[in-house]
Amino acid sequence: xxxYKFEGWLGLDASSAEGKMQWGEFEPxxxxxxxxxxxxxxxxICGSDLHTLRSGWVVRVGSQVKHLxxxxxVGVGAQSDxxxxxxxxxxxxxxxxxxxxxxxxxxxxxxGVYLNGGKSYGGYATYNRVPAxxxxxxxxGISSAEAAPMLCGGVTTYAPLKHHGAGPGKTVGIVxxxxxxxxxxxxxxxxxxxxxVVISRTNAKKxxxxxxxxxxxxxxxxxxxxxxxxxxxxxxxxxxxxxxxxPVQDYFNLLKFDGVFVQVGLPDDGFPTFQQKPLIxxxxxxxxxxxxxxxxIREMFDLALxxxxxxxxxxxxxxxxxxxxxxxxxxxxxxxxxxENEPEAKASL
Length: 349
Description:
Layout: E1 7-10, E2 22-25, E3 35-44, E4 54-61, E5 73-76, E6 79-81, H1 92-95, E7 107-108, E8 110-113, E9 119-121, E10 127-131, E11 135-137, H2 144-163, E12 171-175, H3 179-190, E13 195-200, H4 206-212, E14 216-219, H5 226-229, E15 234-239, H6 248-254, E16 255-263, H7 277-281, E17 285-288, H8 294-307, E18 313-317, H9 321-329, E19 336-340
Parallel strand pairs: 12-13, 12-15, 13-14, 15-16, 16-17, 18-19
Antiparallel strand pairs: 1-2, 3-4, 3-10, 3-19, 4-5, 5-11, 6-7, 8-9
Helix pairs in contact: 2-3, 2-8
């Protein structure tokens, strides 16, 4: 038994997405000696998974956990379990440190079911329990409030940029300057890309993009010649938007020979249709990327420390989570909302 309660904002029905969550107690996953309990200090708000990422302090440690101790400051991303948590040979993805691509059991940090049958409830809460393998130490120099959005939105853009070679000699394009896109700009710059280009509909966020490190800004709705002007100029594009009607054919035309287009946004009605000519004549590659592994998160934190990357965030008291969801859906964040458990505010870095 613990001397603390697991309480949080509960989405009891579809109306919770409209700011009608209810505060209540919940039952964490049944305890295993490979688990830790976390006293949550901060939780980010993400468009695709509104209860996911969190950071806080370890308050209980299983006897089989060797890499964490009581009082460690840790974060958990959008995934908190996979088949590697069970005895026996793990799948190829888990064995290679790519647990986020586990084909056998991918457990989300919210609205998921653990291997022992317990449910995952996310981070709009006071405490949470997770398998320790998926908890990553937050380095000194990164505040808990800054770490929270990095754990999902941050690593979602860091991982594909790193995997596809963003760095010196490359021009990188980021489609969309929202919560994901603003991370993409900063990671591309931190990785040493020669040029970072933001592609958006209007110039409304141009000034912000340049402050984040972008070298160029394309406003597709305000420049009818943008496709021709910038054709064959970009090596790697990471697309963070989720619109089914986005002009992907024009995005492909921006790519150089052997260019790569990575989709990380998830359109509700599927990816737009396109003609295959650029794939054949320019040998471009179209691929996707899913969040990041614990190792990706560690690497990302190291880069953030080395290059001074800090997300643009607004902190909001946990008690105001319902209003935060409403404001989030209206597009208010510039560029990430982070919920903060108020008693912890003074204790965070």
